[in-house]
Structure formats: structure tokens, C-alpha cells
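Deliverable D4.2, example record:
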Amino acid sequence: MSATDHGFEVEIASTGQVIEIPAGQSVLHTLMFEGFDIPFACEEGVCGTCLTGVKGGEIDHRDQYLTPEEQSSQTQFLPCCSRAKSARLVLDL
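Output generated by the structure prediction step:
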């Protein structure tokens, strides 16, 4: 866990469901616990298997998969390692 980790919310765009992501826990693991089936492989942000669309919020990209241009678009992230800079991310799920 990084000193910059903090809890935040994710909103599921298709349903409006809001899920709390605690500090120190990945978005991927939290969503899986809530019953979402998100494919994953490396859990380190290098393979891109868990790539997920983002419709709102500011992403704290911690992956090595997306290019700087893709990261700056703020439209997708890897929930295995990336987090939010904003209080909420709206996910395209």
C-alpha cells in the first residue's frame, strides 16, 4: 500500500450501484467480492486482461500497460492496480 492510497467509491454505470473501495484493497478484488466477473491474469498492471472502461472521475494510473496517451484520456484503467484520484470513479460496467 502506498502512502497516497485512500478509500474511494466506484459507481457501476449500468446500474448506479456504488461500491466502497477501502484503502489498501484493489478495485479488482473488491468488485470480485461483490460478484462481478472481471477477467484477470497478472494482477500487476502489465498484461491488460482486466482493462475496464471509465466514464467519469480521475484515475490514479499505476499500470505499465497503457501508453501515456491512453492514460491521459481517462477512459480506461486496470482495476488490479490503479486507483482513483477523485472521490469516485464511474465504471463502464
